[in-house]
TrEMBL record:
Protein name, entry field: Arylsulfatase
GO molecular function annotation: arylsulfatase activity; metal ion binding
Domain of life: Bacteria
Family label: Belongs to the sulfatase family.
PROSITE patterns: PROKAR_LIPOPROTEIN, SULFATASE_1
Listed Pfam families: Sulfatase
Amino acid sequence: MKKIIFPLSLIAFLMLQGCKDASETKHEEDQISSSNSNKLPYEDPEFQGKIGRTYKDSEMAWPDLPTPPKDAPNVIVILLDDVGFGMTSTFGGSIPTPNLDKLADNGLRYNRFHTTAICGPSRAALLTGRNHHNSGSGFLAEWATGFPSYTTMIPRSTATVGKVMKYNGMNTSWFGKNHNTPDWETSAVGPFDRWPTGLGFDYFYGFNAGETHQYYPVVFENTVPVEPDKTPEEGYHFMTDMTDKAISWMQLQKSISPEKPVFMYFAPGAAHAPHHVTQKWRDQFKGKFDHGWDKEREITYERQKKMGIIPADAKLSPRNEKVPTWDSRSAEEKKFYSLLYENFAGFLAFTDHEVGRLIDAVNQLPDADNTLIMYIVGDNGASAEGGLEGTINEIKGLNGISSTIAENLEKADEIGGPSTEPHFPVGWAFAGNTPFPWVKQVASHFGGTRNPMVVSWPKVIKDKGGIRSQFLHLIDVVPTILEATGIQMPEVVDGVAQRPLDGKSFLSTFTDADAPEIRKTQYFEVFANRALYHEGWVATHQHTLPWRQDIAPGFEDEVWQLYNIKDDFSEAIDVSSEHPEKLKELQDMWEVEAEKYHVFPLDDRGSARLAVPKPSPLGDRKSFTFYEGATRIPETAAPNTKNTSWTMEAMLETTPKAKDGVINAIGGLGAGYTLYVKDGYPTFLYNFFESDIKTIKSTKKLPDGLASVKIDFKYDGGGAGKGGVFTLFVNNEKVGESRIEATVAGRYGIDTFGIGEDSGSPVTHNYKAPFKYQGQIKEVTIDLK
């Protein structure tokens, strides 16, 4: 018999056809679904075919991979940052958000949705469906302590929604802000199990911190640092960049497998400080807030009533006496404060524009109607972290150093641009949270914890433009997603028994405006600010000031308030004196809930918590050696040269034409230091929040061949942030010296440490970043004294 030889391409085609037919048949018969196991990941399925001695008497069968339940929707969770209840036009605010308006007009507005009052804990609650203390995230990573609820190390027993979706066959992605990885774990040595890719997200494009510079962001793709492909002058902005990446990811998924649902978590750094936006967007609001924050509260309040966002009989909460009145401000102060809020308004409007591009792309999907969008407008209330006076150098303010109005107005034309890091004063934060009292960080009151939410799902939601007023919390989002997709929460994930979900599904509200309340009780706590909601009553205790965390009354001098929010939507009337028994009942109930959800120990030490020893890849070393390529190292994983004497010596190999570039830099335009060579001259520059910049230029050029460049700092001592003397050496010969009267005590900023380049925001404009070193850096040794 003559042997027939098929071309290789035909054999491959026939093999693929056979695989396709077999797998499709098997898929129909034995599809793995979320209903047949309470453990994730699913165990490998048993082989359903037959194995004989040879392939002739055998039957193949492909294993089935986990597949989302039939008709499961795409799920997109959008979470903005630091946006108050009364800021967006969608909820009665003065800042136009037409894309959010459009989504709400085709979906639902929720006006009694709650967060934790601070970003990292809110995000932990959102992603896990458990209360933030149960998720190890009682407060922020930078303030972490070694108590289980305050490590900010999300336990494996509280698996994220990303992991549950992924193990059930949905591709998952995370774009933007990640403030849920402890900052001491965000360096190149990890560990990476608490990075987004370790928390169940197939793809991550964003930054690992509470904030980032929007023009010079510290961006990671999965676990690898990447740099923007253009400069701010060429039009770069991180908000646009991450939106482009999100659209591309989504379109690629649907191009390859259009029927397969996807899960996306889209979390911009906007509108967290620094408030970065181009002048084009800022100028749209020129003069629109000259009436000041007190009048802005009244304008927003009246608009909210007219729109039905708040009840017609809701009162405006009393003005906070700790906030200066607008009329008490000088003309120069009013000018500066208006500029800061015009800039913020531009930033938020620009953010709406970019999110609108994402939503437009969603609407082009083949299964757009079966896409559930849950858009949470802020992870807490508006931020008062700009202090009483506002700032154009946010990190300077967070280090406790103020600037004069004259200093600030010198850079008025630059506000919102790459050379500033602006944040508005507290008065605008209170206006942004209208009609509620208090602000971000203050978990005791709705100004800190009540945020708008818009939900869209065209296939299911028919009450277009409806308002929902059930009392809800971030922990209710995961259960709702699970019910919407038909996926069950497993009892075991990655071999670890799971804590039960603390939230409940509010899917019933999608189709019924009068759906029964799912949440009768909810505790709140951040920084010892506390509240308890129970069946229409709220007991509250405001403990610390968000612009002065070190001011607290002491746990023995606490004053509690009581609100009946069935009749008082906006917490405007304290009825504690009229109902002392009810107040005591709720106070006692708070103690029970606090024990149940692992809130203790309460900690009101304020900024002192920053000094609490934390895990570090550095250990207790005082001497460090770095080599070329050590870039994008977070400040917490870099040698701590603050509040001490130190030396840095670099061994360089140069040629006559390869001497220039950065040797080592940390921080950015707001504050930091850089050791570099320019035109052959070694130079050290220390930037103390732009107000004192010391530059030491060598009196001699760097010689050819192997050479040493050393900077020695002798610290004055006597406390934090004191001055000292910098001395520059080349081959152990003194070539320059300068004294500085004050140094950075807390953090250099939101940028990173690098060898051989100044990535991101440059410490100085004396060179064009990253100004990579031309020669060879053999090693850089830093010794702390």
